[in-house]
Amino acid sequence: MATTAAKKQEAKLAKNLAHKTHFTKQEIETLMINFKKMTMSKLERTMFREILHNTFEMTDDILMDRIFRTFDADNDGIIDFGEWVTGLSIILRGTQDEKIDFCFKVYDLTGDRIITREEMFHMLKNTMVRQLAEEDPDEGIKDLVDLTLKKMDYDRDGRLSADDFKRSVQEEPLLLEAFGPCLPDDKVREAFLATFTQTKMDTSDSLGLSTL
Amino acid sequence: MGQTLIRAAKWTSAREGDRGRLEFSPQNETILNLISQMVETFNTEFPQESMVVFQSPLIWFTNLCPSDFPDVDYVKTETTVESETRGRQASAPLLQLSLTTANKYTLKVSSFEYLSYVMKLAGHNKIKETRACLEANPDPVAKILGDAFATVEKAEDKGLLRYVDMVIKEEADRKLKLMETEKEEKKSPQGNLVSAGLNSASLRLFMLLQQLDITLMKETVKQMAGQVRLTPESASKEVALLQSLCGPTKDKHALQSLWYTSEYTSNNGCRAPLWRQVHGDICYVVVKPFDDPPFCVTFTTAGVFQNKGYDITSGSVEYEKDGELYRDLTTLLKEKNLHFSETVNKKDFALNYQIPSTAVVVKFRHEESDKIKIAEKFMNEKDEENQFLLDNPDKRKKDHTSVCKEEKTPSYSQNEARVKKAKNSGKKEKTTSKKNSYQKLKNRSEDHRKISTTNELSSSSGKKGSLSVTSKISSSKTRSISSKSPFPVKEQWSSSDESSSSEDDEDAAEETWKQSNITDLPSEYWQIQKLVKYLKAGNPTATVLALCILRDYDLTQETSQLAIREVGGLDVLLNLLETNEVKCQIGALKILREIAQSPAVRKSIVELDGLKSMVSVLSDPNIQLRSLVAETIAHVARYRRAQNIVRRRGAIPYLIDLLDVPQLVLKSPESELSDYQKLCIKGAQTGALALWSLSHSKRNKKAIRTAGAVPLLGRLLKCQHQAVLIPVVGTLQECASRASYRTAIKAEGMLDDIIHHLSSENVDLQMHCAAAIYKCAEDSSVRELVGRLEGLKPLVKLISNTELRDKRELMSAVTGAIWKCAKSPGNINELKTLGGVELLVDLLHNQPEEVLIKVVGALSCCAEEATCRVTIRKAGGIGPLVTLLTRTNQSLLVNVTKAVGACAVDHEGMSIIDSLDGVRLLWSQLKSSSPEVQASAAWGLCPCIQNTKDAGEMVRSFVGGLELIVSLLKSQHKEVLSGVCAAISCIAQDEENLAVITDHGVVPVLAQLAYTNDSKLRRYLAEAICRCCAWGSNRADFGDAGVVAPLVSYLKSNKEQVRQAAICALHQLSYEPSNCVTMHATNAVPHLLRLLGSVNEVIQEAAAGCLGNIRQLAMASETS
């Protein structure tokens, strides 16, 4: 009895999610089965990070943490199935706008809808190899942060608002993951999608779009 | 002294109880020497200071014994010696020697005075004494002056200063007190001071000790600097320097050659195998000097020495030292080789210094064809060295591939179990290995590219014999010296291999530009260089950012491009293409696409073997990448040499693949397309662009066709999008110069689309379509097809458009198309009805020669037809045509002479020509150097002469004209000969002229031509002979010249005109009896009889006449 009630609830959940996300009902049901295999009912931080690392081949610690927080829409420290599906929908099949929004949330370390210079510096800190002749690679990073800000800050207020970011990415699509990789690669994406979708060849979804 | 003892002197480790001893090393010896010297002379130099009593005595085990001490001044016993002078306490003598344990004497000294006595006494053993003393008292300053003065690590010691101040104050107070009490007591101040703890003398002593310390430190530093410690970097720098001094000419170069024995460099930069690195070996170098045999040298951390030799065949080095150890290789060479030291010392050596020429294009002319190959020219190397290197390519390749393997990223397995076991370590490994491989790939220097270029070239050229291509890989690797960058680079690049490459063969103009603008570089220059630096140093995220920021600069400016190239930016960009990071690849391509439009950059890209990276991207599944790289290749391939390389790398099939877009997508308008479809269209456009650039080379044209491009191009012609159409048609028209393409174009039915596009709005598109038609219409079937497809209408419409008159290329293409089409009579009618003729006449004015050629060509074709001639005349075309006879362009003249000749067929036309003195101009064209012009002029003259009143007068009025024409009969060209014969037949109709040309010897010349197989020539020759018979003894002369027999053979010709002309000639000739005899003898009669029955009246008559004459002669001889 409990199980049928639970099943009904699950079906309802699946239907809701199918409306909100880019997945079909069957796909969500498959995802649900996979989710249960991974964990009982919810994803904790460590498990989530493992998944990010193994399945999506992400390696940046700072960003993985931020992705967890972004997935975790209600900020309760765990990701339940709904949040999981919503998040997957964005990173696997999101429209350009959804992805822009997602990335902005990830990069916004403090959660105040602004990416400041310090936040940028923090994310880019480890991106340069230390040259032997230099004592201070931080100078280079600071300079790069300045240049990036100059390029992306349209309203000239010295920090990146959501609008600034959106406009920049629309102008130059390569800047979507400007501060670090937070979306999966094409190949990885395809591989993961294949685990729970039908093998219908949808040419519009094939490689070459995610970097538009 | 204290500092030196702590820092510079070498101590052994302190073991239990023992405090550690001073090592026996040269450094320590120096220190000890200096100390002992100073101490020995201290007494005499600084008497006051030497009186100062130590706070606590220096105690050590000494080698002296009581007997060494003199009797004076010392209280001696058997085992002890004491000095008479005492310290502060009476009980403590300033020097005390006592026996402690078994035969060991301890010495206690409390002043420098006695120390110096001890030194003197010690004599030879003073070093030992010093050593013993210092070992026992490692911080003598503390003992001498008190603990306050103990040596501390830090140089600053503020406490000490305060203490010193205190002492000075105290002393001053004391002196004051003393001065006051001096009147009362007559004590010696000396005594007081001596008994006081510290005074100014002791401070002075302290200062002296400090000075000694400094001296000692200086000495040790000098010693240490004298020692050599080589590093791999310094070794490679030196080798590079010396390599640049190598060369074949003894006068100019110091050495013949110099190279490393191994190409493999381990992580720390050493080339020696690991088991030798343990011994301190860095690398091995083979030197080949002038005058001496080659020898092998080892670089070690301690210096450079010659070893026992290098075995070329086995590639092994005899590691034993064979000679002295030198500081560096230069010193060794100076010692060993006289020529080297002489050359190096010569003053003008600097002038002969040549930068090793990097990749310079060398033209090779091979037996088969004019192929141009890129070869790296290292002129300084000899063949045997090349041979040596060629012998070791396996070794080199092996090393190279092993290096490459290290760089490959490990495969990512999705195995959960593995993850559970090695969670964090796995993560770190992935991050670091991914990072490392990315960094390594990116920062591979140009030399890596050079290796692969030369390897590839050597393998392909193996059949062609040895190109000195693989020469000096090693020297190419260390091209660290780049005196070509006059600009002070802001930051120091750490890698020594990042010199700018291959600027030797750039324009001199650019060089001077560089020199002159050195001072006013815009700030962008430095910013761009900084960004390139970030490109090199950053991980993929930073790289993408830097790439995006770079694109904001105007990269088409020369300064920007120079900025990028000066710091090896091209290399980084090309290396980025080979990484697996899609975003980086896209960003790099977008930049390359911009800068590759500049010719200098194109050249550099090719020389850096950038095409290899680009072609490898062509096989990537991502269509956006492929499209971008195709566009870049399109730009780069404008450089001629790149075209062959691209083909050889197998790029063409991939490019053609890009063209494969389904029909449906092509036909739908842009608004209905999905993003992916738009990408496909873009891909087709860029693919076509690339093919267009490539199609300038003959071989490429063939390759493109054989790879199956033509049907795809045909399909693309139906596309709606103009951006795609232009390169497609461009490619087609470029390739249409080959017959195979023309047939293919016709077969695929592409003409329909091409004609359709003629009416498009885009001028470029129209131009290319017209050009395609122009080229294809060489073929008569195509011409007719064009006519049927109503192709002439849009063409005429285009030339009627006055706005387009300025566009030379368009006009040229359209008029060319019209010209070729006009060769078919059917099209001429069409043209006429469309009013094309008038338009063409209109175009005779104010157009460049390129266009005029085609216009006149078209007119000449049209003028074959009578009504057109009238049109031309009425439109006032003849005048300009005659004026054009004064031009010099050969192709133009050919057409003009033809046109004028064609117009002269009409009487009215002729009179116009005459009035404009056109005949004389035409005649003068006979003097042209081009046979085509001569022939055309001759043909043109015929109607002129025929249709003029007083033709004879006119012709005679040309000075030397007749002689000229007869002389032309000696020409080798059949066409000229035919034309001239035709002209002569016209001329010979006037009797006087005939006389003149006979005088000029036309008869024998004509007779010589008789033995020809060319039907056209036969015909006109026969006609000429026929006409020329009308004068004097020409008939007999012709007969003598043996013209009859060949003429009889003409009768067998299958061309009626030839037969007709021949028989007329024979008829004329038969009036001369001897000719009849010849005719009879050559069996002409049966032919004549046969020809009697011909349908052609002229032939009938002539045959009859001829036979009649023969019979008459026969009858006359019978009767007589």
Automatic annotation (TrEMBL), chain A:
Keywords: Calcium, Metal-binding, Repeat. InterPro entries: EF-hand-dom_pair, EF_Hand_1_Ca_BS, EF_hand_dom, Recoverin. Residues 59-94, 95-130, 140-175 form the EF-hand domain. CDD domains: EFh (cd00051). Pfam families: EF-hand_1, EF-hand_7. It comes from the Eukaryota. PANTHER family: CALAXIN, CALCIUM BINDING PROTEINS. This is EF-hand calcium-binding domain-containing protein 1-like. It comes from Limulus polyphemus (Atlantic horseshoe crab). The gene is LOC106463022.
UniProtKB/TrEMBL annotation, chain B:
ARM repeats lie at residues 835-877, 960-1002, 1042-1075, 1083-1110. PROSITE patterns: ARM_REPEAT. Residues 457-485 have a biased composition (Low complexity). Pfam families: Arm. Residues 385-514 are annotated as: Disordered. InterPro entries: ARM-like, ARM-type_fold, Armadillo. Transmembrane segments: none annotated. Residues 392-409 have a biased composition (Basic and acidic residues). Residues 500-510 have a biased composition (Acidic residues). This is LOW QUALITY PROTEIN: armadillo repeat-containing protein 4-like. The gene is LOC106460444.
